[in-house]
């Protein structure tokens, strides 16, 4: 079925949402719900379809060209198509790298536009933000070196002259810049305060991957970013919610992150003791799996 469905997608236009959205979902789940042997073949089939990848390129670009309503009451068909497009693109990036699959057509993406889609999120639906963050995590894990992607930067994408030499930190983090890193951090923190479960999971995962990327590129920068004082305010805001919030998996993962990067000015012995006390009083066998896993990682890190 991958052959006719992928060929059908390649003949569509981005506005053919009724046909494209379920088709892209089918391609996405075909990658994720099959055996490893079939998965490698499925990746090869999709990456060999030039028309499909050209269509996917157009769909992704609609993220920053189409207007979003001021107060989206529901996920519109256009938004749903964008979600499917970003999730499929993230999966193709991951599996192309895993199987070293041949690439017949690359996707060209402006890194500044991708980051701005999260930083200046306006009224984008939660699911779209989560989908873009999933894609950003995939490219961060590969250090922006995916064979499937051509990453351009807005300042130089249209033949503009090369900007002035970057600071040492910017050179080490290329293609990211320190200003973009801090802007992204602030935006992710603001999203965490909304306390939406799906969004919180995606934000914490994105923070984890971002700090891992920074640590590989420049350890001093990673430790500096992790120890920013506004993290302390965020943590206190999250911990001052309901009594059981301390054992929520997202908060446990966030605290684990600060412990891992030795952010003593963010996470103190008081918060660590609070988590240990709450864990000791909890009925551990009845904790949800995600909470148990996050608590296990926290204890190992401590």
From TrEMBL:
GO biological process: meiosis I
Top-rank lineage group of the source organism: Eukaryota
PANTHER family reported in the protein's UniProt record: BCL2 INTERACTING MEDIATOR OF CELL DEATH, MEIOTIC DOUBLE-STRANDED BREAK FORMATION PROTEIN 1
Protein name per the record: MEI1 protein
Organism listed in the record: Asarcornis scutulata
UniProt gene name: Mei1
């Amino acid at each position: 079925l991958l052959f006719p469905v992928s060929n059908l997608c390649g003949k569509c236009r981005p506005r053919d949402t009724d046909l494209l959205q379920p088709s892209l979902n089918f391609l996405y789940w075909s990658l994720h719900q099959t055996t490893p042997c079939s998965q490698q073949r499925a990746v090869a089939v999709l990456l060999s379809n030039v028309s499909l990848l050209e269509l996917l390129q157009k769909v992704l670009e609609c993220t920053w060209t189409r207007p979003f309503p001021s107060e989206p009451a529901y996920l519109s068909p256009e938004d749903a198509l964008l979600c499917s497009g970003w999730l499929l693109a993230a999966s193709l990036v991951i599996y192309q790298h895993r199987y070293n699959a041949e690439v017949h057509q690359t996707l060209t993406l402006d890194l500044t536009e991708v980051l701005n889609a999260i930083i200046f999120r306006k009224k984008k639906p939660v699911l779209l933000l989560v989908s873009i963050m999933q894609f950003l995590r995939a490219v961060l894990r590969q250090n922006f070196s995916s064979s499937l992607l051509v990453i351009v930067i807005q300042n130089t994408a249209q033949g503009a002259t090369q900007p002035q030499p970057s600071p040492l930190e910017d050179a080490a983090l290329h293609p990211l810049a320190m200003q973009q890193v801090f802007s992204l951090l602030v935006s992710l923190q603001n999203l965490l305060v909304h306390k939406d479960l799906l969004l919180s999971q995606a934000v914490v995962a994105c923070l984890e991957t971002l700090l891992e990327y920074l640590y590989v590129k420049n350890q001093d920068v990673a430790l500096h970013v992790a120890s920013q004082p506004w993290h302390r305010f965020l943590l206190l805001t999250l911990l001052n919610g309901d009594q059981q919030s301390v054992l929520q998996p997202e908060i446990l993962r966030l605290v684990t992150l600060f412990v891992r990067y030795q952010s003593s000015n963010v996470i103190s012995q008081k918060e660590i003791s609070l988590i240990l006390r709450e864990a000791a009083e909890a009925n551990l066998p009845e904790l949800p799996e995600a909470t148990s896993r996050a608590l296990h990682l926290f204890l190992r890190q401590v």
